[in-house]
Every structure is written in structure tokens, then in C-alpha cells.
Amino acid sequence: MHQLFGAFFFNIAYLFCHCYQWLMHTNDEDARRFFKDSSVQFLLCPRSSVQSWGKKMEAGIVYTHHQKTVIVDADAGHIKRKIIAFVGGLDLCLGRYDTPEHSIFRTLRSVHKDDNRNPTFSKPVIGCPRQPWHDLHSKIDGPAAYDILTNFEQRWGMASKPHGLHKLKERGLQKLKLRGDDDDALIKIEKIPEILGMTEVPRLSEDDKEAWDIQVFRSIDSHSVQGFPEDTGEATRMNLVCGKNVLIDMSIHAAYVKAIRAAQHFIYIENQYFIGSSYNWKSNIGDSDTGANNLIPMEIALKIANKIKANEKFSVYIVIPMWPEGDPNDMPLQRILLWQHKTMQMMYEIIYKALKEVGLENKNCPQDYLNFFCLGNREKPSGDAANNLSAANTPEVLTQNSRRFMIYVHSKGMIVDDEYVIVGSANINQRSMEGLRDTEIAMGAYQPHHTWARKLSSPHGKIYGYRMSLWAEHLGLVEECFNQPESLECVQRVRSLGEQNWSQYLDDVVTEMKGHLLKYPVEVGPTGTVGPLPGCPTFPDVGGNILGSLGDIKVVKNLRISSSGRTISLRGAIITT
């Protein structure tokens, strides 16, 4: 169930998903049928707007409810229960289960026999590689879990409120009275005496070295959630953005920007998309209406530039998918790749300019500070495996014979200085950060006893351990220099390993890959120019221009939405975000 979030209390479950299953292929209608006549209250919920008819259509079809949370009650001792929550990027649907090995062929007849999904190919083909999946998710135990529950209650309250077409879509919902005194199916935890309230839940002492401080952030507006104040002054005090007939929570974007500005040593990002700060791109036809104005790429570039001018070490590592989910030859995906390329180009140009200003352009290069990576895998054939002898030069045949495929990065997280982490559902693009488009949720956390200010050195708390475990998974090894990601030694070593792995990924001879981290397949010049790799302008086996292309913008007659739900052709114009 894509874009699902829910709550489970004492054998009662509440689930609601984005609808339009006929467009998004998220099997939400199948899920509703499965839970029919059970104790599960299941609500399909389109992204809504109370603005013009056109805005309603755009919101309901183009954008989604993208939050991914699960909330459950758990043992709190002394015959009491408490709330815990799970927040991150992982969808509860086909093709998401994976292990750190990210097998592409070996598990097709076992673990992934009935859980094999690869939207790069037009149809399932026996013997083709599965699309491995890499994601980040978190468990929240403590008062912050109740904030996740409050978000669910506010979302449920708005979604179940009968207005407009919702009356027809959820017939009978208001007739449910599970407790006899409530017209809504949702039971408030205040009415369940066994469950502790937020102020009653046990929490670690401030002196406990394992204690955490956690905050919950959202991208959402008053069309999709209850509980926003009617008074604009109060809304401003709550840091809500006041738009035309709408209040907007952009706290995920604010959290990213604040964390980047506070960074002193390094930033590590894993994200499904990396597009933004389009106001500073080199202009081309079609760019002016992109509207990818989120500040995150610019803030990172400016942070690096300021560190260069201060003669201080600083590094940024960004892991993204090799290509967006789907066929990279499709024009909507080509435009996403183009915008990603423009984002990279803009950042590297700012870094080179800073190097030139301080006279370091001949000593250092932009990649000494900023590097992009992707993930991929290869597997040698087993004894019973044979090459596809078909003469067809198709992605299906080529990937079978080369025994390689990308590992899809679906993560949405950032680690700063090994002391602060953000994990959630929000991509680094406009639709996730704006608040008026996709609805998102994330958590930001740190351990007060494991900060640079407290330690006066590199913190080695749980966030450090989390990053090191991710690097060990991606690189297949752990080295001493990984303890100082900001050092030039570490930057150059990780970049070298990524280049070695990319060479192994491309090689005509199939060998087992120890590490999965690959350099992103672009060439960054000493002056910050971003171009194609020599001899490799397209993605291996599957094609598609790595740098993307604007394409020929023509009238498109048929409505089309990609399997990732990120592109749409509507009323004769291609919209991609």
C-alpha cells in the first residue's frame, strides 16, 4: 500500500491511503477490499484543495499524501501501554523488502519470488534482475511518538470530514460508532485508560547518555489537516506560512535549511531526488516554469563556499538513484535528470567561484568538497544460470547478460556532523518541500551527550554508528579515515572507491561487487563543469541520457502518470516535479 499511514490499538486498526489506484498503481483499492468486513477502518484519501476547480484537479491527480507512518501501542510496564511510532521513507507495498546484500538475481526463486518489481522494464520478464531497494526508516519511542499520533488524528479528522465528493467516496463512515458516544470511527487514546498519555509516558533522564531530543516536522497545509489556528497572528507565531485561504506548514524545509546552516564539518545525504534552487540555474527554454525553488542545494553550496573562504575543512556526500524510477528514456524522467544536472552544475560553479576567490583553484577542485554517488550491484551467474541468447538489443536482454542493475535509493535522510539526523518521507524537490503539494512527515533528532559542543571532538553516539553502518553497507569495508568525513583524505578515499566500483560495474567481465557505492556517472571538471563521462553518455544497458534532456514539448493527448507517481501529462501539457 503506497503512501499509507495508520494506527493500531488493541486489535483495532485505522488505515488511510492516497486513492486514484487506477492512476498510481498503488493497489489501494485492493487493500480496501482485503479489509472489508473486518475491524479495520480503512479510508482512501485524495490530495485535496478548496481553491479553484483547476487547483482541485491538480492537487487530486498530480500530488499525493506521501507520509509513511505506522503507530502502535506497546508494553509500558505495570499493565500499561504506550505509543510508539515508525517514520521514514519505506512504503508498505510490493518490492520494498531487501537486505544489505541487495541481491538482483539470487533471490528471484526464493525470498523475492512473489515480491519482484522492476518498473524499468515495460513488463515483467522471467530472468530479468529485480530492482533492489535501499531505504531509511526510524522508530520513535517517547513523547515525540505522540506527535506522530496527533498528526494521524488531524489527518483522519480532515479526511473523514464529509464535504464535497468525500461524502460519496466514504459512504457510511460517519455512521460508525465504535464507542457509542462518538460519530467518528477514530477512538481517542484518552478514552483508553490502559494507554499512557504524552505527559505520563516514561522518558530518560537528562543525565542518561543514551537520551535523545526529537522533533517532528511536516510539509502539509490546512486543506489536508485539522488543528491549524484560524487567527493569522497565531498561525505566524506557530511558524505557519499564510497563503491565500490556506495555512502551510513547511517545517521540513526549515529543518533542512537550519541544519545545513548549523553544520560545521560535513553533511551526508541519501535521497530519492535532488532538485532545487532553480532560481540560480543557467536558464534554458522550459526552465522558467520549473519552480523548484527550495533552498537546500543553494544552502549546501553556500555553506561549502563559506568554509572555503574561512580555510576550514568541510565535505558533502550525496547518494541518489542512478536514474529516477521507471524507464530513463521516457521524456518525463529525462526532464527530471536534466533538472538534477542543472542543480549539480549550479552547486559546483559556486564552489569553483569560491576556490578562485581565495586563490585555491589550482590546489583544490570542487570534488574535494562535494561528491554525488549512486548504488549498484553485479552478481556472477550461478551454475544453472545462462546468458540470454536472444539477439534483441533490449534492456531486458542486456541486463540479464551483464548481470548488473542499480540499487534504487528511496531514502529521505540527512546526517550532519555525526550529531544530528533527519529521517522522513520528504524528497529534496519542490513537491515534498513546498507544503502545498505532497504531504510529508519527518523527524529530526540528536543525543545531547553526543555533540561536538559536549565532546569537543567528533561525537561517537548512535548517529555516528548509524552513518558508519550505512557506509559499511555501501562500501563493503570500514577504514580509519571514515571517522573524519570532513578530511580531504576521507573525501578522496571514498571518491576513489566509488570510481573503482563504477569501473567494476562497467567492466565486460562480470565479478562480484564487494561495495555498492558508485560514483555518479558524470564528469566534473576542475572549473566545476558537469558533463557526460567519456564514452558513457547513457545509462549502461537501459539507455537514457545521463544528463537528461528537455525534449520536444508537444501536446500530449492521453493522461499519463509514471509508476513512481512523479510525472503526469494533463490536458495536453507535460508537468514534471
TrEMBL record:
Please name the InterPro entries in this protein's record: PLipase_D/transphosphatidylase, PLipase_D_C, PLipase_D_fam
Supply the Gene3D superfamilies for this chain: Endonuclease Chain A
* Alphabetical GO biological process terms: phospholipid catabolic process
User: Which SMART domains does its entry note?
Assistant: PLDc (SM00155)
Query: For the PLD phosphodiesterase domain, which residue ranges apply?
Result: 61-96, 405-432
Q: Where is the signal peptide?
A: 1-19
- Tell me which Pfam families the record gives: PLD_C, PLDc
Q: Which GO terms describe its cellular component?
A: plasma membrane
User: Its catalytic activity?
Assistant: a 1,2-diacyl-sn-glycero-3-phosphocholine + H2O = a 1,2-diacyl-sn-glycero-3-phosphate + choline + H(+)
- Keywords on record: Calcium, Hydrolase, Lipid degradation, Lipid metabolism, Metal-binding, Repeat, Signal
Q: Which GO terms describe its molecular function?
A: metal ion binding; phospholipase D activity
Enzyme Commission number, as recorded: 3.1.4.4
PANTHER family to which the protein is assigned, alphabetical: PHOSPHOLIPASE D, PHOSPHOLIPASE D GAMMA 2-RELATED
Name the UniProt record assigns to this protein:
Phospholipase D alpha 1
Q: Which organism is it from?
A: Rosa chinensis
